[in-house]
Amino acid sequence: MRSGAKVAVVGGVFAVVAGGVGYGGYNLWNGVTGGDPTVNARSESVPEKRSGPVTPEETTATAKDFLAAWAAGESDKAAQLTNDPVTAGPALLAYKEGAKVSKSVITPGTPVGTKVPFTVRATVSYEGVSKDLSYASELTVVRGTTTGRPLVRWLPAVLHPKLTADATLRTGTAKVASVKAVDRNGVELTKEKYPSLGLIIDTLRQRYGAQAGGTTGVETWIDSGSETVADTTLLVLRKGKPGTIETTLDAGVQAAAEKAVKAYSRAAVAAVEPSTGAIRAVANSPAEGFNTAFQGQQAPGSTMKIVTAAMMMEHGIAGPGDRVECPPSVTWLGTPFQNLDRFEIKNGTLTDAFRRSCNTAFIKAIGPLNEKGIADTALGETARRYFGLGSTWEVGVPTTDGSVPASDGSETAASYIGQGKITMNALNVASLSATVKNSVFHQPYLVAKEYGDREFATAERLPEGIASGLRTMMRAAAAPGGTAAEAMAGVPSPRGAKTGSAEVDGQGTSNSWFTGYSGDLAAAAVVEAGGHGGDAAGPVVARVLKAG
């Protein structure tokens, strides 16, 4: 063991404190053996290759040996206890040297099958400053394909749950200046108070930190290894002077959005101001990781009937008061489509079909052989012309634009009810309601266009007849007898809404969608496997609208 290093083993906790020279090395639990008692440093025999499931004893012993070697800073020995030592070795070495970890205390938990949870308290030291970085992770023990030895399945996330294949842990002078993100009223927005904003704040810093005028500090961060993916700050050893980035968010609406999505395991919501396009809130559950509200690509279900109704009015097929058929089922070029529980509306209007979300009415009224000659590209053209879908939205952080591609055959009919090839996210659908409320599309944005010298997408103003017709139908959906009525009860007027449910291959319950507006705020939410739009996504949107 190197001079100056101290090793402590107390109650199953591995701790190595590096002295002036660096890490010391120390083998625990019969050395680094991968949990194989037949292997020792003096034996020249080759143990028989093992097979079958990894045993509980092997899981415990292998995890202990790996965690002990890692805690001791013995990256080569720890790597040999994995099923990919070539990749694991440099990553373990970078943890020690790149992240400047001077001490590690690793505490294994109770194994669950072949998975072993553990906690890490790593002391990071740089330029005379030391702070602790604490987190939890887990490892899985597998059997080596060639040796049969029990080994740790190597994944970067073993070292830290946020590490990916191309990412590394780093400690030093931050690459970009510190920033303080504030809402439209100057209220500071932190990832601790608003968890869904963590990735967004990191992205704003990476993109506009220099422009905001702050200075760099000393930090530990996950370097994504990509210019397009934001780095993630894990620990601040010495603060820089933050520059201020003004966002369009509203702290009150954001707080409501965060609370609303927490009721579900996988949900997303976004809120937009119709008169300007300013984004007032964005929240996801889970809060960390992929920003589904901005970057999701999911079928929007019947919320798409907002665009389909606009297309029908644009081409003279039907208006709010025109009679349309709503049978229990309808066939399009041999493919059957039906309403929920095969309901029907007799002698109803397009508004009746909209407020009750009749699928067959929006398919039958157009028809594959419609005398108006509606092309398979018509829906996409309406979506681009009036709703800005298909354009490039320069929001200020990464987003995925809504897609309404050309279709053929039965996919065309499916697209009219938000299925087929159409993909959207909560921000895209919130913008549909915002456009209806305001009669014109304003591209959603999170920071002013001066940040990054961006150009906003534009669209044509909705003709007044179409705009007023859409508002009539959305008001009806939110009124008694409409599918959105229960969720929108108590939401201030003027208000309008549309429900949706989208079938997903391999998923027993459909995704729940809902969008609506109240006053100068529009919102949309999706709850994965939430069922009917008004049941799950509806209350999320209502809570956000009430906070506006």
Task: Write structural notes for this entry.
- The protein is α+β, with helices and mostly antiparallel strands and 548 residues long.
- Helices cover 27% and strands 22% of the residues.
- The protein has helices at residues 56-71, 75-80, 85-97, 198-212, 251-261, 292-295, 305-314, 350-355, 359-364, 378-387, 410-416, 426-438, 464-478, 485-488, 537-547; strands at 6-10, 13-17, 101-108, 115-126, 129-143, 150-152, 168-173, 179-182, 218-223, 232-238, 243-246, 267-272, 279-285, 329-332, 335-338, 495-502, 511-518, 521-527.
- The strands form five sheets. It has a six-stranded antiparallel beta sheet with strand order 1-2-3-4-5-6.
- A hairpin with a 6-residue loop joins strand 5 and strand 6.
- Helix 5 packs antiparallel against helix 15, helix 7 (305-314) packs across helix 10 and helix 7 (305-314) packs antiparallel against helix 13 (464-478).
- The N and C termini lie far apart (63 Å).
- The model is unreliable at 1-12 and 16-44 (pLDDT under 50).
> Helical element count?
15
Give the quaternary arrangement of the chains.
single chain
Distance between the termini: 63 Å
State which percent range the strand residues make up: 15-25%
Unreliable stretches covering 5 or more consecutive residues? 1-12, 16-44
Overall strand count: 18
Instruction: Write out the strand line-up for the largest beta sheet, numbering strands in chain order.
Output: 1-2-3-4-5-6
Mean pLDDT: 90
| Helix-residue proportion | 25-40%
By secondary-structure content and strand pairing, the structural class works out as alpha+beta
| Biggest sheet descriptor | 6 strands, antiparallel
Radius of gyration: 28 Å
Described by the principal axes of the CA atoms, the overall outline is globular
